[in-house]
Automatic annotation (TrEMBL):
It comes from Erithacus rubecula (European robin). It comes from the Eukaryota. Pathway: Glycolipid biosynthesis; glycosylphosphatidylinositol-anchor biosynthesis. This is Phosphatidylinositol-glycan biosynthesis class X protein. Belongs to the PIGX family. It is a single-pass membrane protein. Coiled coil: none annotated. Its main location: endoplasmic reticulum.
Amino acid sequence: CVTLDVQAACRVTTVTQELLKEGFHRDLLVEVELGEDAGGCAVAAQMRLPAGIYVDPYELATLQQHNLTKAVLFAAAIDLEAPEYAAGAPVLLLFLERAARSRRRFRAALPVHARYHRPARGTGGALLVLESPELLLCCCHSHLSAECWEPAEVDTPCSSDSTTPCQWYRTKHRPAHEGSMLRVPVGLREHSSLVCALTLLTTGLCSGLILAAACKYGHFS
């Protein structure tokens, strides 16, 4: 790794994130533009997702096997079927790749999924706010400016391909961030009686049809 020379002035670094696609299944795109040449440093974004959004660990493992995404998910277990009000807020470390023909721009994309929410009264959607990710750098054999960078408490390697922990650093001066918001469709509480009635009617009808077919075509000894 080469040395990252950060001046005491701490030049501006920008971190942006964008939700791509529509519906409950999206791609979260994170882009970083450093104020300095990153050289051979590893760059990552640490994100705390809201309870209404989750990352599928099985999908993540498949993507990493094909070298499409590099990330570390800090969660003992993730219930893929849990609704928003019964889920936790996962923490994710997403490794960013250097953009082509640039030593300052980094980016990475990750599939995320929205959870179902409680029915609400008088509204058709719930608004989820994605906090701005925290920018982290890991530079081997380099000396970052103490005025601009400080050690971060992140117990993970500098890449998803390694098992040896290393020292990550975060900026002392908060970089320019752009957050994202996601509107998730939710059911209307005013429709709960109608939904329950239709569900009960459909269940009874289907059960009757299954029972009739069993009596007509079944062989009973």
